[in-house]
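User: Predict structure, ligand iron/sulfur cluster.
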Amino acid sequence: MVQVTLPLSRSAAAAAVHSAPKTGPDHGIRFTPALERELAPVYDRMKRVVTPMEWAHYAPFVKAINDLKAERGAVILAHNYMTPEIFHGVSDFRGDSLQLAREAAKAKGDIIVQAGVHFMAETSKLLSPNKTVLIPDLRAGCSLAASITAADVRLLREAYPGVPIVTYVNTSAAVKAECDITCTSSNAVKVVESLGAPRVLLIPDEYLSKYVQTQTDVEIIAWRGHCEVHERFTAEELEAYRDANPGVKIIAHPECPPDVIGVADFTGSTSGMINWVKTNKPRKALLVTECSMASNVADDVPEVEFVRPCNLCPHMKRISLEAIYESLRDLKHEVTVDPDVAVRARRAVERMVNLNN
Ligand code: 13P
Ligand code: SF4
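Assistant: Predicted complex:
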């Protein structure tokens, strides 16, 4: 039985919420027949999910961003939840949290633009301390990261002396600095078992912790943080989709509640889910996760029909082509981590990265 600890305080930690003044697009690039021809191979990757009318708006941004990237020596790391025009149009690397952390550690160029949320940009900064790391919108937070503070973790240490603390990467650098090692949804079981301890605190996602508990004999002590996107799915809703779509394969992320995972055919990280669909090519698939994932994988598996309960992550959706363009143009918003915090947080992240290497 997984043990759940109640949050000790509610103060938001990770997501710095600011309102950035908006300036209009000034890329001066028009959607001409020549541009349409030049970017035709790029549009090809997303034409199943982006209409020609939308593309006429996106294409000039795609051109302007790719030109600016080359000029500035920048790379764009895009999470699997980015919209297709970002995912296929301007990103240099795409993946789940672990893959993006690995890419950040070896990224070439002087600038990393994180097309994802704030904790991911902090992780990139920890692993690439000499690079400028930009997040296109500072409001791109995460309900899991906001569910726990560094002070909470210090209290947990007092409450559970000697018990190692594993933190999901969906936390602030300040929280990571108080923990022994980080994990992602793709390696949580491996990280927990690597510690060789009979009991481990796995924070802050209660549902990920409960899922890991089903995969290991190590006793897991959980925190009560939740992902606001995955906690909304219900088993009843999925059963109704299954009734309406006989034979549909249900693929879930481990941030989903246990009864949702209970009805799934496969559970894994965002990239694990994508790989499962690419390998198994079911006739119909339902990805129990953020809405853009199905759009991004559509081109790779045209034979698969996606059934879509559409839950959007409001934080991921802060990142738009326009915001990325302005970020590269004005070199904003730079993500920094306090040096004392960075030393300790980096240790926890590198311990995970090295474990997987
Ligand atoms: P992944 O590591 O599976 O990409 O998860 C990140 C995330 O935020 C899922 O909600
Ligand atoms: Fe956080 Fe959930 Fe959004 Fe992922 S989907 S960034 S866990 S709120």
